[in-house]
Backbone:
């Protein structure tokens, strides 16, 4: 067993973990952060994306011991303490940037990182920035519109948007 100390969604945690335990399994099984989804376990889908020290990572590709001493933000920690949705969460809701919702936590976490790096991305930059996150339902059109909406660069309307 290895001892790890982390800050997860603003809360300090210390635990003994198997050295081979993936961060995604630690978050879900030990901390109950089930919004971090286990998708492919091969880092191909991005559903497990979280922020580690302010940058997006696929938590199925990071060992919990590698995150030792770090700060992790999950989808549960993105909203304000008062329950106010993060602007990206709100944009996904308003623009119907989800259908089944399975990929949504990872898409949102990747979008937050993308907008931190580039607050006004072009459509091409959005598509490139999200290319490591897969969605099987939406066709990405409304996801791109949600990112544009969160960035304040949306054109047109979200009325009647469909997934």
Residues:
């Amino acid at each position: 067993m290895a001892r790890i100390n982390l800050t997860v969604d603003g809360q300090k945690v210390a635990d003994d973990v198997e050295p081979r335990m993936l961060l995604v399994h630690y978050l879900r099984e030990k901390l109950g952060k089930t919004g971090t989804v286990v998708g492919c376990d091969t880092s191909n889908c991005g559903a497990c994306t979280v922020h580690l020290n302010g940058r997006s990572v696929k938590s199925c590709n990071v060992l919990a011991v590698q995150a030792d001493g770090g700060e992790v933000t999950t989808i549960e920690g993105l909203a304000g303490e008062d329950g106010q949705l993060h602007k990206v969460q709100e944009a996904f809701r308003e623009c119907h940037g989800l259908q089944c919702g399975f990929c949504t936590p990872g898409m949102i976490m990747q979008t937050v990182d993308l907008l931190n790096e580039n607050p006004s991305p072009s459509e091409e930059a959005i598509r490139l920035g999200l290319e490591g996150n897969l969605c099987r339902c939406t066709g990405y059109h409304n996801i791109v519109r949600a990112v544009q909406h969160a960035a304040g660069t949306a054109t047109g309307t979200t009325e009647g948007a469909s997934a």
Observations:
- The chain is about 30% helix and 15% strand.
- Residues 157-163 have pLDDT under 50 and may be disordered.
